[in-house]
């Protein structure tokens, strides 16, 4: 794989390791706990990442297929447009600016019946594998010229490489959010 794609693969691997470390220490009570209805639980943070991946992966597929169909190939290193870089930077933790997740990316509310923990965790791990698969499929594509459309807005189109970078930044952001939740003084200790 191209060096930039290999770097993204390493990021997805590190994110998986970070999630495994966080989740291994949590009881089911801790996994589903939220201090109030307006704050996501660890389960909701993870489910949000699953919902996002479910929406975003087909957009990556479209972008990669379109780039190959139109012969948009390149070897890099790639330089992304300022908007793509800005958008990615805005997602990186620590969170400086909070955003309300678009409706398409919202996890089920805390009051709704919760999915089984094993399903949520397995979904997250499966999506990490699928992201790495898309990196392999994108090998040889010009990551700065190919564009990926946001599932939340048809007006947001990022450079393909920045789209991968956005996913890693977004996942780090919400794992950071989940970890911060576990550091609260009122977080259940069992």
Shape: elongated
- How far is the N terminus from the C terminus? 44 Å
Give the domain tally.
1
CATH domain fold name: Four Helix Bundle (Hemerythrin (Met), subunit A)
Q: Strand order of the main beta sheet, please?
A: 1-2
User: Would you report the number of β strands?
Assistant: 2
How would you describe what is shown here?
- The protein is mostly helical.
- 57% of the residues lie in helices and 3% in strands.
- The chain has a two-stranded antiparallel ribbon.
- A hairpin with a 7-residue loop joins strand 1 (147-149) and strand 2.
- Helix 1 (3-24) runs parallel beside helix 6 (160-182), helix 3 runs parallel beside helix 5 (117-137) and helix 3 (42-69) packs antiparallel against helix 6.
- The model has no long low-confidence stretch (mean pLDDT 94).
In summary, what is this structure?
The protein has helices at 3-24, 28-32, 42-69, 82-91, 117-137, 160-182; strands spanning 147-149, 157-159.
Write the layout of secondary structure elements.
Elements: H1 3-24, H2 28-32, H3 42-69, H4 82-91, H5 117-137, E1 147-149, E2 157-159, H6 160-182
Helix pairs in contact: 1-5, 1-6, 3-5, 3-6, 4-6
């Amino acid at each position: 794989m191209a060096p930039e794609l290999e770097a993204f693969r390493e990021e997805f691997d590190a994110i998986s390791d970070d999630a495994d470390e966080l989740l291994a220490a949590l009881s089911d009570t801790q996994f589903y706990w939220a201090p109030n209805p307006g704050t996501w639980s660890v389960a909701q943070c993870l489910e949000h990442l699953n919902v996002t991946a479910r929406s975003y992966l087909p957009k990556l597929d479209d972008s990669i297929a379109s780039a190959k169909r139109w012969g948009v190939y390149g070897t890099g290193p790639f330089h992304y447009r300022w908007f793509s870089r800005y958008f990615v930077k805005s997602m990186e933790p620590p969170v400086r600016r909070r955003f309300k997740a678009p409706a398409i990316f919202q996890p089920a509310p805390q009051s709704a019946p919760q999915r089984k923990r094993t399903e949520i965790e397995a979904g997250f791990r499966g999506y990490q594998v699928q992201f790495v698969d898309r990196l392999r499929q994108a090998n040889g594509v010009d990551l700065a010229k190919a564009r990926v459309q946001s599932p939340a807005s048809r007006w947001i189109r990022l450079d393909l490489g920045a789209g991968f970078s956005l996913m890693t930044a977004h996942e780090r952001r919400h794992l950071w959010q989940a970890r911060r939740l576990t550091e609260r003084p009122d977080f259940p200790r069992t």
